[in-house]
Amino acid sequence: MKKVKSIIAIVLLATGLNSYAQTTEQSPNPKLIAVVNKANWCAVCKANGERFGAVLYSYAPKGVNIYLNNLTNEKTKEASKQELEKANVYGAVCTIQRKGMGKAFKACGLVKDKKQTSDIAGIVTFIDAKTHKQIKQVSITESDEEMKKTIDNLLN
Fold first, then answer.
1. DSSP secondary-structure letter at 41?
2. Distance from the CA of 2 to the CA of which of 30, 129, 132, 138 falls in 20 to 30 A?
3. Distance, CA of 133 to chain centre
């Protein structure tokens, strides 16, 4: 039963973010850009996806453009890459070393000898909407309060 709940949570996160990105027009003048790295195989995503999605969606009307970087397989990676390149944020998400994300990396099994792969799921990258430079990355395991505090600080 727990496995079924986890699968449902990740499906909700994936479909919710996909439908948001596809059916809701992104703000032409966003204040902040959030890119969520997720994957169907990610334990962190399964455990926190639904809760995190609810927090993040509440900021869309406040000027946060939300994109999904689906790292599930090569096909989803390529599709996500194309969308992120169109938004001019792919470089900020995929080419910068991630620091301070040890718990998320360990949970997803992606840490080897303190080196990370660029395919890290279960994190959100916040990007400055004007410069398209990475501002901050946080794990979706953060509490709702911490995530709201982070986003509120980035918006101010």
1. T
2. 138
3. 15
Domain count, the chain: 1
User: How much is the mean pLDDT over the chain?
Assistant: 77
Query: Which CATH number fits the domain that encloses residue 93?
Result: 3.40.30.10
Domain that holds residue 151: 2-155
Paired tokens of 91: 């470089």
User: d(Cα 121, Cα 72) in Å, to the nearest integer?
Assistant: 9
SS in 3 state form for 85-140? Answer: HHCCCHHHHHCCCCCCCHHHHHHHCCEECCEECCCCCCEEEEEECCCCCEEEEEEC
Q: What is the pLDDT of residues 67-100, one digit of tens each?
A: 999 999 999 999 999 999 999 998 888 654 545 5
**Residue 113: pLDDT band by 50, 70, 90 thresholds?**
very low
Tokens for 74, please give them. 């090569």
